[in-house]
Amino acid sequence: MQTIILGDGHLGWAVAAAAAERGQRTPVLGRPASIRHDPAAFTGVDLVIDATRGDAVAGNIEVALDGGVRRFVIATTGWSGDLERVGSALRAHGASAVAAANFSLGVAVFARLVDAAAESFGAVEGFDPFVLEWHRRGKVDRPSGTALGLAARLVEHHPGLTGPDDVETVSIRAGSSPGMHLISFDAPGETIELRHTARDRSAYAAGILAASDWLLRASRSPGIHPFDAVVDELLARRAAAA
After folding, report:
1. Structure confidence at residue 240 as a pLDDT band (50, 70, 90)
2. Which residue among 21, 151, 175, 203 has the highest number of C-beta atoms inside a 10 angstrom radius?
3. Measuring CA to CA, how many Å separate 62 from each of 56, 59, 147?
4. How far is CA 114 from CA 35, 160, 172, in A?
5. What are the residues facing 71 on neighbouring strands?
6. Could you list the active site residues?
């Protein structure tokens, strides 16, 4: 099975390094000299991992579809405005993608802890939830897609919250942190914190490869699938093995 990585930034090379540790060679393509990649570059490619920029995702997916690719992992943020465009293109070609703002397996499980905490503290008077996230100075989007997703989960599971405006979400862009997300519930006399800190991009690479394996292991319905579907299968398989 041939996989190509689009995007020669830190994340793209981290995925290539993680794949190399598994004995897999995954070519990395940087930004094309022209506006789009040549569809011929995708001949014989089974899966594309997009680790580029938000404004490039839709075009990358469309040209790869033209080149015959039918499986994608979209590991780029900042393209929510093109969500329907990308989903329609995938469905029209019978193609499947896994997309997430954050492919860390730790973050995926962390988010489920946030769900449970929101339900519990939502039943207790006086605890005010908020989100704090810190990324490297050069990260463009703020808040991060992960922070927005965690805030949305707070709203979904906390009975006292009605919308995203009810959750204070603070972003820090400084230094070289690959990512820290803090969920806190603050009351007058005490504070509870749930924190996830990424030490490097290998955590994201592991999840991206897990999503790639999920797509290659079986036929998936056309369209965009959440990373939760991959995590659900991983947890079920490990529970069965135990």
Report:
1. confident
2. 151
3. 10, 5, 28
4. 41, 15, 21
5. 96
6. 135, 139
pLDDT of residue 4: 97
Sort strands 128-135 and 96-99 into parallel, antiparallel or unpaired: unpaired
Domains assigned to the chain: 3-103+202-241 (3.40.50.720), 105-197 (3.30.360.10)
User: What is the per-residue pLDDT for 242?
Assistant: 66
Question: Helix, strand or coil for residue 74?
Answer: strand
Residues 139-170: pLDDT tens digits? 888 999 899 999 999 999 999 999 999 999 99
Q: pLDDT value at position 235?
A: 87
In contact, 142 and 219? CB cutoff 8 Å: no
Q: Exposed e or buried b for every residue in 116-140, given b needs 16+ CB within 10 A?
A: ebbeebbeeeebebebbbbbeeebe
Which tokens sit at 78?
């900042």
User: How many other C-beta atoms can be found within 10 angstroms of the C-beta atom of residue 238?
Assistant: 9
